Amino acid sequence: MLLSSHLIGEMALTADQVVVIGRGRLVAELSMAELAARAPRFVRVRTPEPERLARVVEDGALAAGVTPQADGSLSITGADTDMIAERARAAGIALHELTPGTPRWRTCSWN
Fold it and tell me: d(Cα 77, Cα 16) in Å, to the nearest integer?
């Protein structure tokens, strides 16, 4: 069966294998598992000390990226929930939310 969609999140629910075409050229042919592994993931974090948590997460061996969100939460890439929680605990920072986000399909790496 052939199905065409730009909604990769929905494709993840219906397909095992995908072919990615960009500007009329074959970009990738891979399994949904391989595609999911390439998609950057993020963790949504709410804390009463977002600036301090951002510094703690960005410091050290974690190559994490922190993006403040309009609602006051942080979007953190490059670190999982366990790493973030451990860093926050060690720094004495309370966490009110620590939620893994869905893959960011639009920023997949095709290399």
Answer: 26
